[in-house]
Protein: Pyridoxine 5'-phosphate synthase
Organism: Maribacter flavus
Amino acid sequence: MTKLSVNVNKIATLRNARGGNVPNLLKVAADIERFGAHGITIHPRPDERHIRYQDARDLKDIVTTEFNIEGNPNPKFIDLVLKIKPDQVTLVPDAEDAITSNAGWDTLKHRSFLKEVIAEFKNAGIRTSIFVDPDPNLVAGAKETGTDRIELYTESYATGYATDRERAILPFVEAAKKANELELGINAGHDLSLDNIQYFGQNIPSLLEVSIGHALICESIYLGLENVVNMYINKLK
Ligand SMILES: CC(=O)[C@@H](O)[C@H](O)COP(=O)(O)O
Ligand SMILES: NCC(=O)COP(=O)(O)O
């Protein structure tokens, strides 16, 4: 079975909007685990616009399932991850000013850098994953870095799903084939949702884990909205 790791960045976004501690990120993460998720993912960004570095440290004591920290391995991020020692670190080449992650690694161009960083994390006993576009050459490049897994960047699949899902999945099937051949574990994430997740899983049977945040939190708001509106109306009777 594919594991579901819930990305809680959006909970931190909501909390930070008011400057207080509502919603309580640590409680939400613990509840998500209690509801059955197999892991918690965070992606602390350098400007700490959602997850703060302190959140990452605090979550280490709360998360009892799999803790996955994503980010661009700059010195501050490497230091944080080595101190926390999560179960998994996912390396993402995101620019500081990017609204969200928008590309995978060029694993050929950055091979020696990635090799060095991967070795550092693996020596510390942390499983590693590299965020890549669904391209067999880049998957082969990832293998050369010594990483345990890749995370397939699924934005193009999510976008293409609505118009032509057979076409949208094709590069992912090819990339997964290459990863299987090379005995690289496969994770996936970005813009996966209740609409598109099942078809993805059916076509990538060796998928070990998905990390989902944005859609899952939006869907939770929608699916809870009717209930909460009625709870307020009842309180006002
Ligand atoms: C690595 C990745 O795919 C991202 O989806 C990410 O973790 C989400 O980051 P934001 O919540 O900052 O958009
Ligand atoms: N690695 C992807 C992730 O953690 C969540 O991405 P998204 O569901 O917020 O797009």
Notes: The mean pLDDT is 97. The pocket of LD2JLWAY (ligand 2) is lined by residues 7, 41, 70, 151, 189-192, 211-215 (CB under 6 Å). The chain is about 50% helix and 15% strand. The longest helix spans residues 155-181.
